[in-house]
């Protein structure tokens, strides 16, 4: 007897059964479950989930659902922006102060300049930048986000966005994986396993990177605060900054839909499949657990990962800036060489160099960029404050509003970080799709920034 | 990451002999005596129960589909070391999505000593569909009636005894969030494993022709894939024309899968649990 015979035997036996035998079994299974459940569950009081239903009517209504979502997102980001501002400066002052002290100490006890430079101006400075730029927003954003997750809000988001995804030819559950992407794109890619159709799953994987992950939020927040909001009266700063970040997030969501639509009309053709989504009851969030998950599991985890890349990145920048070629240095030469292309995109050579160095974890791109600017020539006092950053970039390096806007767009749209690319490869088991995910995002980023820069120049905005 | 911290004690705990016998063992799953699987519909609190028992911090949140891979951890109860496997939530064991396949493969081929099906007491009927499907595969099932507090708030009273009687397997009311009922659950699991509690799972009989067909296929399957558990379930899947099961049978993969589920466990677990962080 071999396996084939068993299959044949099964075929023959199936012939002896009525054609709907499986349906009958499933039906009797369901009937049985119904009877048992009815016997075991007694309704003592007719307390329906009145409040839950009332809230859901508001939260998932076609009229109020989407505006409410925007308001919630706005509140979370506003809290992050205004809270982070207060702490960021204190942390920056402290860390850069320690740097000055360490440098002074080292030179006092006669340690060679290149060791002092490598350690304090390279490795330590990289770490200090990452911690002061990233830690405060994360420590506020993560708990707020986890709170919404614990309440049971995410499935409601999926419910509200379902019709849009369906229109784009994608799976409604993609809004869940997209929401996970706000936490971490690699996690969002893994979460796509809840989508059973391979076609729709691939769309969800390839477009996940269009929502900014937590690593990229600090970049957006910093740029929105320092540049966009500084053009307005101080009283409005935090609102304008939050509004700008919400706007960038919306652009990212728009690109998710656009790219899903394009993919499902071209290489990944097909119809959207139906699914049932359970709306869980609202549950009172467990505050201690939220603090633990968001601060220890997420914040420290993400920060540690950023620090691991920031230390070598700081070292590389210091080395590049200290290899002298004529009266210039290597960092500057590379940045100058990249500059024409950068200007074409409304950016500059230093930003592109920072992106290349920060490929392993591109959330550290702003710290990297600051270090290249400083290392490539000009040192500025008190760069940790937003006024200091503004001064360095605008007066020192000719930044305009276009540079800031395009850098935000580039940060939103560019290629996934190395971890996400590896995760995409692991999930799809295909080099091709991993490469496609990079090409799609990078292509979009180049195209969009180029168009925006050209338009801005054409209309004489800059 | 051994953690001897106890679960939220109440005043009753002091007088309870079971109180001091639970030890959370975190990642220490290298040497275990028994394997227990956690199955259930999405968002019924499997990961919350998993964390409460192992002291690990598997990501939890109030939305269906967080757990997409299996996570493993350990706990020690009355001197016996258990490896606990947290499976992705699933409504059925017949579907094709990857997360559901992870759950199905483990219950089927991983041969856990006991499977706890975590159910939502506020939506029992729908949850029972999965319970009955798991009982098609294995005898050693304990139903954990979770979210009892939520059910009470909703004005529902769930009779665990009536449920146990009807299903033929023990049903234990718990609240994974507050820790209520967890010791009874663990004691019940231990009893099912060592045979103190003999289960008689309710199974759908089907027509006489159906029973005859199943009985004819079972010995054939056992002959070509020796050591395969749940030949009855496989027979039903073959009669149904399940392409995946057919393929697995042809390629000899069935036997391999049994082996693989046994081997892959230890190194896999630590890695997965760490990667599972989000």
Provide an overview of this structure.
The complex is a heterodimer of chains A (about 450) and B (about 280). By secondary structure, chain A is an all-alpha fold. Chain A is about 75% helix and about 0% strand. Chain A is built from 19 helices and 3 strands. Chain A has a two-stranded antiparallel sheet with strand order 2-3. In chain A, helix 9 runs antiparallel to helix 11 (about 235-265), helix 14 (about 350-355) packs across helix 15 (about 365-375) and helix 18 packs across helix 19. The radius of gyration of chain A is 26 Å and the shape is elongated. Residues about 375-380 of chain A have low confidence and may be disordered. Helices cover about 45% and strands about 15% of the residues of chain B. The longest helix of chain B is centred in the C-terminal third of the chain and has 17 residues, at about 210-225. Chain B starts with about 20 loop residues before the first strand and ends with a helix. Chain B has helices at about 45-55, 100-110, 125-135, 150-155, 160-165, 180-195, 210-225, 230-240, 245-250, 255-265, 265-275; strands at about 20-25, 35-40, 70-75, 80-85, 115-120, 140-145, 155-160, 170-175. The model of chain B is unreliable at about 1-5 and about 265-278 (pLDDT under 50). Chain B has a 7-stranded mixed beta sheet with strand order 1-3-4-2-5-6-8, sandwiched between helices. In chain B, helix 7 packs across helix 8. Chain B has about 280 residues and is an alpha/beta fold. Chain B is globular and about 50 Å long. Chain B is built from 11 helices and 8 strands. At the A-B interface, helix 1, helix 2, strand 1, helix 5 and helix 7 of A face helix 2, helix 3, strand 7, helix 5 and helix 7 of B.
Low-pLDDT residue intervals, each spanning 5 or more residues of chain B:
1-7, 264-278
Estimate the strand proportion of chain A: under 5%
As a whole number of angstroms, the C-alpha radius of gyration of chain B is 19 Å
What is the 3D shape of chain B? globular
**Helix/strand class of chain A:** mainly alpha
Structural class of chain B: alpha/beta
Strand order of the largest sheet of chain B: 1-3-4-2-5-6-8
Sheet with the most strands, sense and barrel status of chain B:
7 strands, mixed
The percent range for helix content of chain B is 40-55%
Return the average pLDDT of chain B rounded to an integer: 78
User: Which series of helices and strands of chain A comes N to C?
Assistant: HHEHHHHHHHHHHEEHHHHHHH
User: How many H/I helices of chain B?
Assistant: 11
Report the β-strand fraction of chain B as a percent range.
Answer: 15-25%
Return Rg of chain A in Å. Answer: 26 Å
Question: What overall form of chain A do the CA principal axes indicate?
Answer: elongated
**Largest sheet report of chain A:** 2 strands, antiparallel
